[in-house]
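@channel sequence for tomorrow's demo:
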Amino acid sequence: MYALTTFFILSAVGVGFIAERWGGGGGPEWESSGFVLLQIRFLIVWGLAVLGDWLQGPYFYLVYERHGYDRISIQRLFIIGCISAASLGVYLASLADRVGRRRMAIVYFGIYALACFCVHFQPFWVLVVGRVCSGIATSLLFVVFDSYYVQQSKERGFPEKSLKKTFKKASLIQGFTAVIAGIVTQPAVEGTSFHTLGPLAMGKELAAYDLAILVFLLGVVITCYLWEDDSSSLRMLRYEGNASSFKLCNGLKRRKVVDIVCLGGIQTLFESSMNAFTVLWTPAMQRTGEKDLPFGMIFAGLMASLMLGSILFSASTTFLTVEMTLSISLVVGMGSLVGPGVWQDAAGYQVFLAFCVFESCVGVYYACIFTLKAKIVPEKARASIYGVFRIPINTATVLLLLLTMPVAWMFRLCGALIGGGLFIVLFMMANSTTQDKLAVSISNRRTRGYHSISKS
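structure tokens (generated this afternoon):
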């Protein structure tokens, strides 16, 4: 049943993709060979970055269970990763504005490979080291890669709408690689037996982490080959004095500062809930009482839904604004998380379908938030500000996971947080409309004043 659902979701993604290509017509003038080449180079490296991350996804919870740890211990390990992301990760992410985003992308691949290697050991302190490395890598993943592309795109003079096109594809690839991860890891885990070589554990769920290590090592090589060094360009962009996102904000217009703060709030409320979901979806499925759940195939179905979300983003933004599309996805995402929390006796398949709806909303969210960040955040301190965003996200995730309430109540709380994110999006839309009207009013007054001076 899970495999059949995954097949139908993938079929819907395929139909949507073909329909979009069929009805797209010719590309705009700016879609030259230079744009396509830059886009391909970015998407290949991005695909490897998220593939290595997703390969761990189906068995993140189960691999620690294999080492003999319970749910509370696993949540503590996840919390350690979040603290690492909020401290060391933010510092290293801010370095990207100084030493270059390409170099920090290479650091991402290297440090995440080390994190996956640490999981092969049973002692808690080694797992803690792995989670620290993983937290740093997660911060870099959501800061460095899109920052690099936005900078390269603007340097070449491509219009802002080209970013939406690329980030839609990035969201699609994020879902596609996740589906591949779920499908590939299932036979890798089932086809190996658990064994130890001294202190090193091998086989079963750890096979997924071995695949991730190979992908990350490949990512180092491909990034060095495909991406141009950007450190010299960033030195030219750097403003005088000690570069900091807070100092930069002092020179921005009030509306820009409000939009940046709102972006941080939306990301904090949604992504902290999404991070909690990453830990909770496995025990939520186990709670249904079904035996021998195919976690690899379930994960593939969830990630196929993520791909579907990127197709829905592309379709909806042809007649809706990005902000309106984001608000609709938050409403649906909130309902899909509250559902499993309310259905105490729901069957595993019902919970799975609700989670698929949520992941579709995540796909829409990623495409929307990438587009909004590219439009709102200033280039000079892009990576620094993105890094600052990670602090409240990880703090909120830690606070969520410190709670020991039942899984059902955790989902209700996550739904409430997403509702808070929806409120901020609506505030942004209202504030934008008000500021636009004010700008038009001021412009009209100036025009009338100019005409009266001319007449006199």
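heads up for whoever presents: Residues 22-26, 239-246, 434-443 have pLDDT under 50 and may be disordered.
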